[in-house]
Amino acid sequence: MERFTISLDDKLAKAFAALITERGYVNRSEAVRDLLRAELERTRQAQPGEGSCIACLSYVFNHHERDLSERLTGMQHEHHELTVSTMHAHLDHDHCLETVILKGDIAEVRRFADALSAERGVHHGHVNVISVEAHEPHGRGKPRNAAGPARIHRHGIGAKPHRHVKPAT
Q1: What is the C-alpha separation between 83 and 55, in angstroms, rounded?
Q2: 4 in any annotated domain
């Protein structure tokens, strides 16, 4: 682990100490690591050829809106290569919350999330995108976190072929 020293003016140090307390960090180092990861992720996703991601899209919608449930389900089926799973929760008589787990190219995931969130009757749409990189899975002849492309493999008879991914930061 590499160490470095940082100097902060009193006002910034006080604000940082408050943030550490508010978020429940046990020390400043972990707080700085999280801030760096977030900024590196933001910068990575702003680059051309952004790469692959996993994402969580959440939104609220009025299930009485004409054909909206069917349109949302249809969009997910039309993009089955991106849609991993959907969770549906009833909030009240009129509103539902859905959370959709997505996986794929960052630009494609964002386009899908934007299109779904823009549907009439969908409110509070938000997507959280995490860049990922392929890695060789455990027990496949390489160290657990070896860099480089992972081969497509299966985990048993009848299992779908897949690649393992891990967060890029």
Answers
A1: 10
A2: no
Q: How far apart are CA 106 and CA 111, in angstroms?
A: 9
Sheet holding 52-62, edge to edge: 83-90, 95-105, 52-62, 122-135, 164-167
pLDDT digits (tens, 9 = 90+) for 119-132: 999 999 999 998 88
The answer to whether position 1 is within a domain reads no
Do both 83 and 117 map to the same domain?
A: yes
Tokens 């630009």 sit at which residue? 107
Structure confidence by residue, pLDDT tens digits, 19-72: 999 999 999 999 999 898 888 877 777 776 668 899 999 999 998 988 999 999
- Asked whether residue 76 falls in the same domain as residue 105, the answer is yes
Whole-structure pTM value: 0.68
Rounded Cα distance between 70 and 158, Å, is: 30
For residues 164 and 150, give the distance between their C-alpha atoms in angstroms, rounded to a whole number: 7
